[in-house]
Amino acid sequence: MKITRRFFAFLLITCAPVVLFSFSHVPNKVAEKGQYVAYIGTYTSKTASKGIYAYRFDTTTGRLSAMGVTAESTDPSFLVTSSNGKYLYAVNETDNFQGEKSGAVSAYSMDRKSGKLTLLNQVASRGAGPCYISLDKTGKYVLIANYDGGSVASFSILEDGRLGTASTLVKHSGQGPNKERQDGPHAHWIETSPDNRLALAVDLGLDEVLVYRFAAASGALTPNDPAFAKGDAGAGPRHLGFHPNGRFAYVLNEIQSTVTALTFDPQTGALSSFQTLSTLPKNFAGANDTAELAVHPSGKYLYASNRGHDSIALFAIDPTNGTLTPTGTFSTRGKMPRHFAIDPTGNFLLAANQESNNIVVFRINRADGSLSAVGEPAEVPAPVCIVFAPAD
User: Fold this and answer.
1) Residue 229: left (phi > 0), alpha (psi -120 to 50), or beta?
2) In a domain? residue 24
3) What confidence score (pLDDT) does residue 9 get?
4) Do the domain assignments include residue 25?
5) Structural domain boundaries, residue 316
6) How far is CA 8 from CA 18, 103, 210, 269, in A?
7) Distances in Å between the alpha carbon of 98 and those of 95, 168, 288?
């Protein structure tokens, strides 16, 4: 991705000032005896799913034990949990909420013993098809990417965990060369930078990573200078992951099945690409879309999921210059791995195979990053996202 400068049209809507309250945001305590609750977001439309599911996860053995449906909800695809272990937030990936052309965002309180979720409130996401949700580093705001709406938004979190009003809505504009997939903007991912000063949004329709200044006091998003990094034409960037050192970022390109390595300047927000590699074996000629990527907490490895090849691609990361070396692919033992998550210990990777309706646990070899399956797949209808919370 090469930095370019151009004027781009955007609509910045700032709501009335948000009154902030204290919000307990402390690191998760170590789960007793290595026990966590793994919450699974799913697609409910045209599937047997009822909403959000939960499994107790043992970080010693990698075993998943079913806890059942924890919240009935419509298309609660992507999830995020608060670092104090009290709340879970989900996007409802729909295009109609209370008569508005919008999806929804739902706030839940968590019972860490039973895994049950209690709905606190639900608000419009301010755009259709919200597909990603994250928390800023203070835990006071949620950030939303509306895929069909081509927009990003931030919402305040109130003292009791409920969602407040939208602090900012920014609509992207433009299109890419792929007329079928890039007919307009399609925001697919948004998170704040490691120091919380900036928010980066990945837009599949524009082949861009847009960079915003993030105001931690109000949740406002305003265009940075430089305002974006341009990717390869038709690449279709989907998700971004930071290296633990904060100097490198990696973008997964869905349409071209590639991963791009970039340098990141936390002071200016400038991104500059220096390497792009395929996520697929050289002898694979079938259809494929990438979906998820993650950098291992050690900073040694990058993982990316392939939907079509149905695998996890593994790359070794050079600790000095951030370059990637492909070291193999591993079957996910299922179909269409839409998401995967590395557990809090860094010892396991859980792959969510959407079309084969299962979660497969893999042990991570810390010496080389390779994956080996553990136990039998856990059955979950149309899994989309996996997040963890400490279990009592």
Assistant:
1) beta
2) no
3) 39
4) no
5) 2-19+31-390
6) 27, 25, 10, 17
7) 10, 20, 36
Q: For residue 179, what are the contacts with CB-CB under 8 A and spacing of at least 6?
A: none
Distance of alpha carbon 323 from alpha carbon 307, whole angstroms: 24
Q: Please write the tens of the pLDDT for every residue from 91-135.
A: 999 999 999 999 999 999 999 899 999 999 999 999 999 999 999
Instruction: Give the residues of the chain that fall short of pLDDT 70.
Output: 1-33
In a domain, 66, yes or no: yes
- Whether 161 is covered by a domain: the verdict is yes
Instruction: Decide: 43 and 51 in contact? Cβ < 8 Å.
Output: no
Nearest alpha carbon to residue 23 among 92, 103, 90, 107: 107
**Rounded Cα distance, 159 and 128, in Å:** 27
Domain with residue 315: its CATH number is 2.130.10.10
pLDDT for res 33 = 65
The answer to whether the CB of 262 falls within 8 A of the CB of 243 is: no
pTM of the complete model: 0.92
Structure tokens at 353: 């195979």
Q: Return the closest-CA partner of residue 144 out of 161, 164, 169, 120.
A: 169
Tell me the residue type at 353. N
Which residue type sits at 361? V
Q: How many domains does the chain have?
A: 1
